[in-house]
Structure of NAD(P)/FAD-dependent oxidoreductase:
Amino acid sequence: MKAANTRDTTSETPPRTRILVVGGGYVGMYTALRLQRKLKPELDRGDAEIVVVTPDPYMTYQPFLPEAAAGSISPRHVVVPLRRVLDRCTILIGEARSVDHAKRTATVVTLATEEEGAGAVELGYDELVLAPGSVSRTLPVPGLADFGIGFKTVEEAIGLRNHVIEQMDIASSTRDPAIRDAALTFVFVGGGYAGVEALAELEDMARYTSRYYHNVQPEDLKWILVEAAGRILPEVGADMGRYAVRELRARNIDVRLETRLESCEDRVAVLSDGSRFPTRTLVWTAGVKPAPVLAASDLPLDDRGRLVCTAHLSVEGADHAWAAGDAAAVPDVTSDVPGALCAPNAQHAVRQTKVLAENIVAALRGRPLTPYAHSYAGSVASLGLHKGVAHVYGRKLKGYPAWLMHRAYHLSRVPTFNRKARVLAEWTLSGLFKREIVSLGSLEHPRAEFETAAGGRPPGHGGPTARARPGTAKGTPPAGTPGALDAPEAAPPGEEPPRTGRDESADSSPDS
């Protein structure tokens, strides 16, 4: 092992090689997992350490978010606790704000630094793995920051489920037809995997839930999918994309292609074709962009803001820096097209982690590196319960076989045997018993009832128990979340705080 030259010289421990992994998603978790196995002798001797910096203490398997939103899978089983899996790594819950690779340091903000008021800390490293993933790509659409809902985290998925059922409660109890119509109108922007699968699963759930309302029928629900391109699900091919559109429209879902969202101010979605839809639910899934930490580094980026990488998954022109997944522009050595890059999808990310970890170990031990090479196998997508599309190894599937393949593939890819068994058990039970239709909206504000009883702040204004990401105000729901969408205004002095209309029961958050 090479000697570490970036450690604090005042430390009493001998220098050792520190591998810093930025990001605890699929790439970050699996890279760290393989590193702790491959470097077991060095870790035992204290010659190496692996530090994982991540905003959350768990990894989210995002392909299961639509099923978690629909209630087919418990949110606790969509996430993998990092401390349990990466038991030989140091897990630091925080956010890497910038990277100075010339000095081998990363600027990190944690929950502790905010409490201490000490500001960001500089964390030195010898080998850097950048796997921060991506964030939602938003556009300057008027009203989007105030009323839009994202769909990239398990919190957003469960919040959206609660929100949809809550809108049905509002529609069932109001006498105002305008309020009822807005509550039962659901607009999804983006025709990729996230948007189509989320809409399809939630439409299935809402249609089933309507049977328990005496005055809400399935035909009262209005679902609208807005896509700027001329087709949806481009990953499964043009034929399967057209089939998906036909299937969605057969379920009375309004699919609008070559259409953009122009505005959503005052809870009115205005589309580029002139249509206007009063709605209390606007879900934004129109693409992603690299995490901001990449732009705050001195490493080379391509025109899309991704790290320019070699086929060995090292950052081009930067020794001891590595990347994979959404953050990396990796050459596709299997393609006949000059300059072709690997698609930033889960299929490549899963396989890149193995090569990435092996190459880091090879570099530390002075062995030659292996290039990443994988031919694209195809794609699968769910269109709701027992419905799907697939284009795998040149074969096209639709309906039940495609849905079954979708579940089988993702069950094989979800990390750890523990999660595989739990997900399979829940799928089995959901096939035997009825869906759960309970809205647990108070999950976002667990202290609301107590604050009201104690004469404190009105419900919806957060509190000490509200969990804040590094760099955000405590107890303040970020713009674009379901919590921010329905936050009530403060009551005038001496008046009773307004009711939120949310179910005041509690739920448990994803385990850590």
